[in-house]
Design a protein that fits this description.
alpha/beta; 7-stranded mixed beta sheet; 33% helix; 13 strands; 2 domains; Aspartate Aminotransferase, domain 2; 17% strand
Length: 323
């Protein structure tokens, strides 16, 4: 364990991350790794059951299916296996454009009937009956948070279901349980290694039968290689989840205090994961990795996963590396 701790210290000292995931390297990521296989391996089965059950609790859903691949893969599989009828997407920026692109393809295939794309500032205007409302609670490209409950209340009034791209909000924001289905990756708010993604849901899928790989049923029943080592990397993390999560909250609070004159969004729209400021942040050395937003922004988005390894002891010292 001393050797692992030394390795963790060195790796996290070699590079300082201000990106949205993965965050700093955790000893828990490494100690959970082991030889494993998806079938007839009782050791791995116990690990998988623990991880999946824990993730279902975090997401507030009845069921969780693990996939080997990115959060974008999970979004596409989720859309193909759940969306039908009329769909309304909330426009929050770059990542909602991705949702809109996927749904446009589904409309061409007549998988969904109609598609509406409405700006996040106009969500109170969503009054027309729709089968699904679909959005990103945390849009990392501009450091924006849309409270899930706010959109859920709208969906309840018009009797629609709620779908979330929860890649940047899972584990960090509240009220994911209000959604009917959501997808997310292993390496942001869950604090695992990259390579895995998940779909959690409480409604029955409309299994997409035109593809083997894109049919959620085949992932559910493990008909292909799953994210075995990613799940192992989450095993010890989720046992210590509350303390690790606290590092993000500590960093966010300290950064808000330091940059209170440079904030773009009000408190209601501040995500736990990141902060958008009207200032171009710079690193003090070559070991600093700043986030390069995919959106065209004049300021910077700073993410708060760089001190995960310090857990609740994180005091925002990493922020001294940027100005």
């Amino acid at each position: 364990m001393k050797t692992i701790n030394k390795l963790i210290f060195k790796r996290n000292n070699d590079i300082k991350l201000f990106t949205p995931g993965p965050g700093s390297l955790l000893k828990e990521n490494i100690t959970g790794l082991r030889p494993c296989f998806g079938r007839n391996d009782n050791d791995y089965k116990n690990i998988q059951n623990f991880v999946i059950n824990k993730i279902s609790k975090i997401s507030g859903q009845k069921k969780t299916v693990a996939l080997q691949g990115s959060g974008s893969l999970a979004i596409e599989i989720m859309c193909l296996n759940f969306l039908t009828g009329n769909v309304t997407i909330i426009n929050t920026g770059y990542y909602s454009d991705r949702l809109n692109f996927i749904c446009k393809q589904l409309k061409k295939k007549k998988k969904i009937k109609s598609l509406e794309y409405i700006h996040w500032k106009n969500i109170k205007n969503i009054k027309k009956k729709t089968n699904w409302i679909f959005f990103c609670p945390t849009e990392t490209s501009i450091g924006l948070h849309i409270p899930i409950r706010e959109v859920w209340e709208i969906s309840k009034k018009i009797k629609s279901r709620l779908m979330l791209d929860a890649t940047a909000s899972i584990g960090l924001e509240k009220d994911h349980n209000l959604a009917d289905v959501l997808s997310f990756s292993s390496c942001k708010g869950l604090f695992g290694l990259t390579g895995g993604s998940f779909i959690s849901y409480k409604v029955k899928p409309n299994y997409y039968k035109n593809s083997f790989y894109l049919n959620i049923y085949n992932h559910e029943f493990k008909k292909m290689t799953g994210p075995y080592h990613t799940i192992c990397s989450l095993y010890h993390v989720l046992k210590n989840y509350k303390k690790i999560r606290q590092s993000v909250l500590n960093n966010k609070k300290i950064f808000l205090s330091k940059m209170k004159k440079n904030l773009i969004f009000p408190k209601k729209n501040q995500p736990k994961l990141c902060t958008y400021v009207n200032k171009k942040m710079k690193g003090k050395s070559k070991k600093i990795v700043l986030y390069e937003s995919r959106a065209k922004i004049s300021g910077s988005v700073v993410n708060h996963l760089g001190e995960l390894h310090l857990g609740e002891k994180a005091k925002g010292k990493i922020l001294n590396y940027i100005y």
